[in-house]
Structure formats: C-alpha cells, structure tokens
Amino acid sequence: MPLDKTGNYSSARFFQAVFCAVCSVLSAAAIYGCATVSPGSKPVCRISGIDYVSLVSVCAPAGVKTEYDAFSGKARLFNNRHEIVLRTGDDAMLYDGELRHLSRVLQVHRGSPVIASSCVEQLMLLFGPSGPAITEKKPVFHGIKKVVIDPGHGGYDPGAIGRNGLKEKTVTLDVAKRLTSILRGSGVDVVMTRSTDVFIPLERRVEIANASGADLFISIHINASRQRSLNGFEVYYVSPQVNDYKRAREAAGEYSLRLPEEEEKDIPYEAKRILWDMFYSYSRAESSALAGHICDKIACEMKMKILGVKNARFHVLRGANMPAVLIEAGFVSNPSEEAQLRNSRYRQRLADCIARGLESYTVETMACLE
User: How far apart are CA 111 and CA 113, in angstroms?
Assistant: First the structure.
C-alpha cells in the first residue's frame, strides 16, 4: 500500500498517485514430586556407561523451574517463555509442543530425576542464557496504522474439529487475540471481526473490514484433511481468476476512495472504476508479498513444514478493499499438530511469527520506496 506524506499507508494516496529474539524472565527453581538433591553438576550416577547429573542441579542455576511426576516418569522444565517435557527412557522430548528427538536423556536414580551430562548444555541453550533477563525488542510496523484481524468461524460454527476435540474456532480466536496484543503493543490500531465466541457471517466480516479504513486484513484459520498425515502451514491471497473488473465496478458504486469530499464528488463513475481496478491489481501483489514474509518467518523460527503461498477465491479475500491474506496455521486433523495447537506457548509462537512476518513485509515495502 502506498504511503502519504506522513509515511503512513493510505489508499487515498494510492488513488491520488494512480530473529529471533528469545528472552526469558528467569525465576527461582522449584521441584515437585521428588526428593531434594544437593546442588552441583558432578555426576551422581552412571547408567549403561553414561554419566548422569541431578536435574535440579543443572536447572536451578539457569533459573529454570522443574517438576517431576514419579508416577508417569515425566519431567517438566520451564520458565516464562519456554517448556520442555521429558519422560524417562524416551528417545524424544517436547519443546514448546514441538516433537524433537533426543536419546534417553532422562533417567531416575534413587527416586529422583537425573539427566545425561552430555545433554545438559544442549538443553540449557534452549532456555537462553542465565542471569538478568533480556528485554525483547518490540516489532516495528513501518507505516501501518490499522489492521483488521479476523478469527475464523465462531459461535455455532466450530470450524474443523480434531480427533481429540480441539475446535478450530477456539484456536483462531486465541491466536488472533495474541496477535492483537502484539500489534497494539507496538502502537497499531486493531479491529477484530470477533473478540468472543460468536458467529459472524462472511459478508459481515467483509463489511467490518471495508468500513474500518484499515491498511491490511489478516484472517486466521486452522486446516483439516481426511488424510491425517497431512500437516503444515500455508497462506492464501485472492486468486488472479477473481474478476477485478467486476469488483471494481461494485466498489466504484459502493465505497469511497477516501479522498477529500470536494475532490471525490467531481470524479466520474468510470474513472472511479478504473482506479479501483488498478488498486485491486496492486493489492493482490501486496497480499502475495505479505503472505510470503509470514511463511518465511514461520519456516525460520518454528521449523514448520511450509505448504506455500497460494491463491484462492475465499469470500473474505475477494471482498476486502485492502491487501488481505488468509492463514491456515496447521492441521487440526493431524494428531501431532492438534497436540501442538493445544499448547498455549505454541500458539504464542504462532502469533509472534505472524507479527514478525508483518514487520518484515513493512521493512521491505519501506526500502522499496526509499
């Protein structure tokens, strides 16, 4: 979207012109369900030729809390930003809900959890450095003043439902609220098409977006498929097959160009239609660019499988009078991704990456205009 003299995105200007920073707030360590082990990183036992140290002794100095359930054999390591879940004898762990392979790192010695010495450094790096917390830099959205965020489905329309009962409408609203918080924290005005569990018709979502005067429209959804093995992240923009001439003709009769009233009233209908037609073509290119930046951040920071930037004829995309994307943030039909989407930290990471993708998009747009 072009910028006006103040450096802000403006459709009026268009018509007239024809890290990953990871931080942790570190806190005191606590352990539940096991005996207290004296601090120190010296090996406390040797199992199958491998040295093991007390789990508490390595987590406490790093400000990482620990919980251990002797009945299930599960240990939880966490701070305010990250979480690792291990189980005795397993060859895998969950890091912020993401499955990672790690060979039998956790064992039990005299009723208390111990961890393989060779894995200590690797695990602690996942939580960041010890000592004073590092303040995470807020994203900067150059030229963006207002964004519409559209959580998919809602109310009596649950959207897709996972095998274990996770509803798409619940995840989309949560991620949307987290993204809203990030944007507002950086001074961006946000309009949500829904902020509670209510049903909003597609036509009404488009009306809300177009009446808002926003710079961008972001619709959040969760995918599903009969093939439970399918997984990954994808972003859509409006299809080139959508008739821009028809959209422009409707827009010319219904919507303002957001120009000063004395200027707009003198513009004939056909000129308005041409301007809207040009704008829709430009908006499609901007939407595709935004989708690409979001996918890049997800791929880089979350290591998700990227299914790509795609075009479609979704109603909310073809009806929006601004650059618009629709995000499919994983498959609730995939057991692994359903489990990840249940994790609040994982949903926060999704929101963070979407915001970083938006930031990257605005940086590139500003650079092109300089």
Answer: 7
Q: Within a domain: residue 53?
A: yes
Q: What is the pLDDT of residue 24?
A: 28
On whether residue 3 sits in a domain, the answer given is no
Burial profile 109-143: b = 16 or more Cβ within 10 angstroms, e = fewer: beebbbbbbebbeebbebbbeeeebeeeeebebbb
How far is Cα of residue 21 from the mean position of the Cα atoms in its chain?
Answer: 15
Average pLDDT, rounded, for the chain: 77
For the stretch 87-115, pLDDT in tens is 887 777 888 777 777 666 788 888 888 88
Domain hosting residue 86, numbered range = 45-125
Strand-strand pairing, 106-109 and 92-95? unpaired
Rounded average pLDDT over 240-263: 58
Q: Distance (Å, rounded) from C-alpha 174 to C-alpha 196?
A: 10
Q: Which residues contact 254 (CB under 8 A, 6 or more apart)?
A: none
Asked if residues 219 and 328 have their Cβ atoms less than 8 Å apart, the reply is: no
Last residue of a domain, one of 125, 151, 180: 125
Rounded to an integer, what distance in angstroms lies between the CA atom of residue 286 and that of residue 57? 52
